[in-house]
Amino acid sequence: MTNKSCVSHIFPQFKHLVENKFHTKIKSIYSDNGGEFVVLKQYFSIHGISHHTTAYTPQQNGVSKRRHRHLVETSLILLHDASLPLSYWPHAFSTAAYLINRQPTPLLQTKPHLKSYFVKFLIISN
Asked: Is the dihedral of CA 9, 12, 63, 96 positive or negative?
């Protein structure tokens, strides 16, 4: 996606992809208060998708700030532990997200986030 104004063209394709892959409908969308989702307001109402926006100030948005801080700190720890320069920051950041998404969590009965989504699609055969 080259800019945010492409959302109105890309989101219907994304919706189709998600609904086909996971066999479920998108029920709600969370976004910031940006204007790129305003043009999709009618699309959301036609398809029964509720649109929620984030808090108005960063101070009110504590959960996302804590998650972002966790991601940044994990990335910095990975760089420091491997003695790598900051030029490897993008790789460390994506690796940290990869690792965090695969950690077990008590909310999902100690299953990793991704396993809870993909477990019904795994077929193991000999």
From this structure: negative
Contact between 54 and 34 under an 8 Å Cβ cutoff? The reply is no
Half-sphere CA count of 70, side-chain side, radius 13 A: 11
| Coil, strand or helix at 2 | coil
- Reading the chain (126 residues) residue by residue, the pLDDT tens digits are 677 778 888 889 999 998 888 888 888 887 776 777 778 888 999 999 988 876 666 565 666 778 889 999 999 999 999 999 999 999 999 999 988 877 777 766 666 555 555 555 445 555
Q: Phi/psi zone of residue 57: left (φ > 0), alpha (ψ -120 to 50 degrees), beta?
A: beta
Residue 69 corresponds to which tokens in the numbers above?
Answer: 């801080």
| Helix, strand, coil share (%) of the chain residues, nearest 5 | 65, 10, 25
Helix residue spans in 47-88 (DSSP H): 62-81
Measure the CA–CA gap between 24 and 43, rounded to whole angstroms.
18
Rounded to whole angstroms, the Cα distance separating 67 from 38 reads: 26
